[in-house]
């Protein structure tokens, strides 16, 4: 069994390649035409579904009348949609209450009618769901394919014998998000992609490829390929497997060949080795990806091909050197991330997943902990491409419940299948550095749960021995040492005060903060810098999210009267993707962004305080805002807080110095002044010795007179899936954002696009996320545009009563 200090070198791939079926354009419901030369084709099965929210007796039957059901495309999440007869998805009486952000689950039905061509006869066909929340039952042509309880793992069914080539087929899915089953917003429905896959009888099994590099040096990398090949034909055959490795320029770097026999209706695992000289290594700063082309031949004829990006890198965890990536020490700058995409709910559009990674990367993060479940394949693909380390996590509970209807009901029967799904699907991603078997599992100090921990760890290791196993442990005490003994790397939730004592007691234990408080960001990071056995810090949380409403303000214990709070309000980045004050502080802590920033403590609290908040509930940040508009508070003394990396900071009000104060590490990168309010310009200047290094300012602004629209991408793909995020700012006559502006912004769209989400990051807003209208909050709001399948110009207009409107154009193109 692997120890936590052994070197782990792996070459990895970024997921399952998806070939488009020739003869199929976009996401049509008629599947016709010949397969491509690879022997495998894949259809994105996201369009043309019908959906009904509620019970539908007989909904699985082919002849069921679904004409009145609503047409939807996937990904889909009904919990983010407005409740019937309202303009809001939120309900103070929702079963999930604070945990689910007062959103509603229930039961939903999906049906898709499609026709498969005659060329599907004699082929192997399966349907794959990337994620359905939760407890889904699936039928094809009235025959039940199976049930999948867990809402976060991918699953597939062999439909070869049930599919009717040349005829109409009906796929039906019932989704049951019933009762209280999550501690955060889960969303409801088929919220990730669905794929229809077609292969020749002899083909590579689903998730059947594993690529590792057991030896990596600057001179060479030994690449080890394992591929499970299935033979669904009635006769035994002899097959050849060929793998070609190419660099990012397309140059062939190595070839491996092997032959073996495969029994009738059986499968064989092929094993190959190849050598790449002077390899380019994958890292967070240079995420270089090679390409592996794996082909299956029978009697000289090509029957299957899979092409997978490959990242070559080594990882090492040690007590005395910390975490090493490619032999170089790397401090892990991490954040926990729930799976929702803010205004989109849990809908896992590829671009939404990629954007979150881009934003965290640009704000200094080099690692993400997927809390507390496996993410979408698109999320991991983005981490591979952008150079973001990942902890891939399984469960938030095992046999003991956190909620009455959560996964504990299914754990005994399903944990092996769900771990296998996670590891087999994700094992080849270069971004993944650890597998986590759980978070804050109930009863970690009991022998029974310790036994389960060892069982889960051993099973993960049997599937992938190239990465260490971890878990997040809360309320850390010596009583949990037996549980820690199951882990290669120990995850500490909110337990930095145990780092030193536990190291002295168990010097071989490698630790890190699986969760930490934002307010203690300085202390947690200093411990990473000070103690080599503490390899990193994952703040709770990097991105804000729906659910656990108000833990970042009112805290625990949570009650129904927390409504209308809907957001956690504890993230460095808010649900729209904009920086919150703690993100500016972390810029300085990590030396990753603005070296000086300035904020003001409001004369009155931003929101009503909770006098009953528990002392340990400190997920909040200081109540500070980037605002110097305090009309009515002239001459009132306000706290001005400056975050600065420099040794000293000087504060100016309207050109007059208010004095210098020490900042820098010795003062926790913070300096505070008490300033009698006067409108004008507040400016902070940072110095090292006598050299002026950087400055920041706040200005008193006028009322908004115009709108400014800025998109993150002015060109998107005309595939019915791609997104552009448009920020709308309310500006005064000098072009400055008014931080007090809360006007209603109305949107109109023309061209081949639709508005799929709006937001403003107000944690107490209960507005619709889907109507073409949204109040600004602190001077801005967000509108998200999705492409259709046609090319052309998409124009979005924004208007506010009494001020100048604005418009922006996005180009949608086929690629």
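Q: What amino acid sequence fits the structure above?
A:
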């Amino acid at each position: 069994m692997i120890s936590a200090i052994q070197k782990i070198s792996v070459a990895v791939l970024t997921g399952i390649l998806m070939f488009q079926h020739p003869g199929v354009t976009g996401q049509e419901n008629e599947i016709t035409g010949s397969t491509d030369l690879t022997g495998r084709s894949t259809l994105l099965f996201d369009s043309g579904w019908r959906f009904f929210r509620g019970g539908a007796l007989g909904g699985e039957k082919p002849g069921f009348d679904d004409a009145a059901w609503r047409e939807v495309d996937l990904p889909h999440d009904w919990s983010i949609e407005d409740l019937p007869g309202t303009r809001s998805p939120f309900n103070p009486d929702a079963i999930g209450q604070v945990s689910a952000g007062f959103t509603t689950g229930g039961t939903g039905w999906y049906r898709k009618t499609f026709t498969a061509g005659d060329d599907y006869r004699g082929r192997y066909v399966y349907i794959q769901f990337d994620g359905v929340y939760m407890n889904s039952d699936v039928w094809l042509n009235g025959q039940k394919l199976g049930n999948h309880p867990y809402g976060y793992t991918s699953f597939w069914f062999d439909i070869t014998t049930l599919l009717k080539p040349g005829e109409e087929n009906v796929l039906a899915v019932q989704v049951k998000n019933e009762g209280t089953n999550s501690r955060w917003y889960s969303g409801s429905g088929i919220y990730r992609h669905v794929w229809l896959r077609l292969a020749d009888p002899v083909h590579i099994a689903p998730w059947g490829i594993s690529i590792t590099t057991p030896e990596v040096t600057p001179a060479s990398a030994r690449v080890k390929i394992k591929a499970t090949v299935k033979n669904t034909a009635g006769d035994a055959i002899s097959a050849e497997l060929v793998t070609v490795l190419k660099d990012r320029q397309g140059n062939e770097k190595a070839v491996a060949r092997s032959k073996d026999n495969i029994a009738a209706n059986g499968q064989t695992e092929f094993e190959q080795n190849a050598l790449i000289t002077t390899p380019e290594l994958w890292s967070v700063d240079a995420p270089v990806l090679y390409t592996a082309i794996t082909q299956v031949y029978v009697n000289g004829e090509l029957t299957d091909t899979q092409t997978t990006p490959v990242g070559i890198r080594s990882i090492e965890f040690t007590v005395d050197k910390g975490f090493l990536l490619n032999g170089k020490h790397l401090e892990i700058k991490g954040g926990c991330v729930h799976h929702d995409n803010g205004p989109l709910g849990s809908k896992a559009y590829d671009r939404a997943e990629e954007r979150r990674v881009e934003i965290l990367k640009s704000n200094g993060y080099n690692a993400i902990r997927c809390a507390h479940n496996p993410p979408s394949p698109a999320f991991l693909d983005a981490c591979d491409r952008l150079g973001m380390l990942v902890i891939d996590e399984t469960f938030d509970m095992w046999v003991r419940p956190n909620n009455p209807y959560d996964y504990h009901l299914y754990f005994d029967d399903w944990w092996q299948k769900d771990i296998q799904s996670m590891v087999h699907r994700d094992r080849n991603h270069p971004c993944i550095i650890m597998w986590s078997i759980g978070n804050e599992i109930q009863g970690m100090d009991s022998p029974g749960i310790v036994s389960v921990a060892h069982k889960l760890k051993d099973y993960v290791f049997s599937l992938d021995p190239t990465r260490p196993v971890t878990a997040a442990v809360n309320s850390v005490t010596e009583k949990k040492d037996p549980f820690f003994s199951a882990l290669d790397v120990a995850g500490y939730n909110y337990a930095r005060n145990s780092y030193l004592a536990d190291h002295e007691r168990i010097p071989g234990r490698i630790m890190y903060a699986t969760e930490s408080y934002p307010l203690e960001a300085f202390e947690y990071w200093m411990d990473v810098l000070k103690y080599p056995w503490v390899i990193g810090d994952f703040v709770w949380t990097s991105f804000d999210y729906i659910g656990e409403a108000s833990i970042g303000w009112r805290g625990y214990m949570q009650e129904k009267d927390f409504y209308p709070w809907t957001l956690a309000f504890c993230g460095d980045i808010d649900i729209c993707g904009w920086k919150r004050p703690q993100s500016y502080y972390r810029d300085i802590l990590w030396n990753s962004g603005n070296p000086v920033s300035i904020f003001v403590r409001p004369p009155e609290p931003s929101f009503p305080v909770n006098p009953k908040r528990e002392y340990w509930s400190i997920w909040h940040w200081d109540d500070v805002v980037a605002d110097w508009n305090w009309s009515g508070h002239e001459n009132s003394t306000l706290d001005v807080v400056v975050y600065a990396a420099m040794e000293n900071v000087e504060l100016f009000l309207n050109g007059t110095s208010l004095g210098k104060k020490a900042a820098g590490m010795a003062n926790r990168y913070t300096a505070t002044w008490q300033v009698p309010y006067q409108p004008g310009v507040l400016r902070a200047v940072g110095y090292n010795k006598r050299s002026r290094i950087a400055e920041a300012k706040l200005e008193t602004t006028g009322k908004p007179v115009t709108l400014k629209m800025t998109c993150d991408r002015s060109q998107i793909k005309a595939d019915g899936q791609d997104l552009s995020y448009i920020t709308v700012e309310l500006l005064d006559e000098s072009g400055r954002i008014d931080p007090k502006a809360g006007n209603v912004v109305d949107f109109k769209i023309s061209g081949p696009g639709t508005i799929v989400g709006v937001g403003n990051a107000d944690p107490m807003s209960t507005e619709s996320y889907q109507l073409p209208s949204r109040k600004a909050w602190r001077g801005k709001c967000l509108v998200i545009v999705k492409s259709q399948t046609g090319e052309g110009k998409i124009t979005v207009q924004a208007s506010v009563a009494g001020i100048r409107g604005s418009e922006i154009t996005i180009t949608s193109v086929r690629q």
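Q: And what stands out in the fold?
A: The two ends are 47 Å apart (CA to CA).
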